């Protein structure tokens, strides 16, 4: 997997897969000309290609998540003020999370994406500050994760949950199956 | 917590809570006269009361999940044939998952519930059989879990994810806060 994300690794392992982690070292450039979804697709493709180059005979998987607030892409917050601004923007409204998936196998790259609508509760300033203190915002697009403390910020989602967590599991399994791979079943 | 469910324990621990597990020993009776949501509320209340009786000075939490297919409650499958029937019924359509939450604190019980719509992919018979072989269906209402292999059965959800997993985390945190408890923030 072309990713250093512990969440993505955990999700792949939950399928019983034997996963080797190879961070791509790819630095995500700012590309204001792309829509948030296209940005996620572009990043996932670039990460996948960077690793597939070194592992041409393996199945290489990369993913990228972008939070989309009315067409503006939110990446990981730079600092506390940035996290506070993002969480205030998300409070009491609906945004979209796009996760793109790139799978390289047998010399070809397949690109897929999923988009899920996420509705936040109206957050009080103290609630935002406490969430920032948990440290959870800083490695996550949009400044939140839907697991652990972040779970209590989210009123509802419409779409695939794992897309919000950063890896569209169902889409991944179904794409692999289409490509001719059947995942092992483990108890 | 009045529950033997490892998933519920894991979710509560993800909030940094120090949780003591006390299975209620409550046997869930069939109560065909209740709606699926009322059945979940009734079971959660009964489990919570059974444990709170022994721990009157602690906060006791219980939850119960019922899968609702057009008004019919699906509990845990009894055997392989029952699991196959449930999964075939859920294939290619939308059902509702109700999770009820009972919190006993300071001599009072608060009851809450959340309901989430879950849409399954159209499943092929081989896919149902492989999922049953994973062993995942047997301790879960409706014969599936939305984690691990079960994640690939679900096309989308509309509502709260953790309600489908069996414990409505956001509702829990917000209800505790209303009752005057603020959860500790842990990194």
Describe the structure.
Two copies of one chain form a homodimer. Chain A is an alpha+beta fold and 187 residues long. Chain A has one domain (6-178): Maf protein, CATH 3.90.950.10. Chain A has six helices and five strands, in the order ααββαββαβαα. Chain A has helices spanning 6-14, 36-52, 80-90, 125-133, 161-165, 169-178; strands at residues 60-69, 72-74, 94-105, 108-120, 154-159. The mean pLDDT of chain A is 91. Strand 5 (154-159) of chain A pairs antiparallel with strand 5 of chain B, so a sheet runs across the interface.
CATH architecture of chain A: Alpha-Beta Complex
Overall geometry of chain A comes to globular
Task: Predict the CATH topology of chain A.
Answer: Maf protein
Radius of gyration of chain A: 17 Å
Number of domains of chain A: 1
* Main beta sheet strand tally, sense and closure of chain A: 5 strands, antiparallel
Helix content, binned percent of chain A: 25-40%
- E-strand count of chain A: 5
Average pLDDT of chain A works out at 91
- List the quaternary state of the chains: homodimer
CATH class of chain A: Alpha Beta
Tell me the span between the first and last alpha carbons of chain A.
Answer: 23 Å
Number of discrete helical segments of chain A: 6
Biggest interface pair, counts:
A-B, 33 and 33 residues
Strand-pairing-aware structural class of chain A: alpha+beta
Major sheet: arrangement of strands of chain A:
2-1-3-4-5
Q: Helix and strand succession of chain A?
A: HHEEHEEHEHH
Would you identify the regions of chain A where 5 or more consecutive residues have pLDDT less than 50? none
The proportion of residues in beta strands of chain A is: 15-25%
């Amino acid at each position: 997997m072309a990713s250093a994300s512990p969440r993505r690794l955990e999700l792949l392992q939950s399928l019983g897969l034997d996963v080797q982690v190879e961070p791509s070292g790819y630095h995500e450039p700012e590309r204001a000309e792309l829509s948030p979804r296209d940005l996620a697709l572009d990043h996932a493709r670039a990460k996948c290609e960077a690793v597939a180059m070194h592992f041409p005979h393996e199945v290489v998987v990369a993913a990228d998540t972008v939070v989309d607030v009315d067409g503006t892409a939110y990446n990981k917050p730079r600092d506390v003020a940035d996290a506070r601004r993002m969480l205030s923007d998300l409070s009491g409204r609906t945004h979209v999370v796009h996760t793109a998936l790139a799978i390289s196998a047998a010399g070809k790259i397949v690109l897929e994406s999923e988009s899920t609508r996420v509705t936040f509760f109206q957050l009080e300033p103290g609630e935002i500050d406490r969430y920032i203190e948990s440290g959870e915002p800083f490695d996550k697009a949009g400044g939140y994760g839907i697991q652990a403390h972040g779970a209590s910020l989210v009123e509802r989602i419409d779409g695939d949950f794992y897309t919000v967590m950063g890896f569209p599991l169902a889409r991944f399994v179904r794409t692999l199956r289409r490509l001719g791979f059947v995942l092992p079943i483990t108890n």
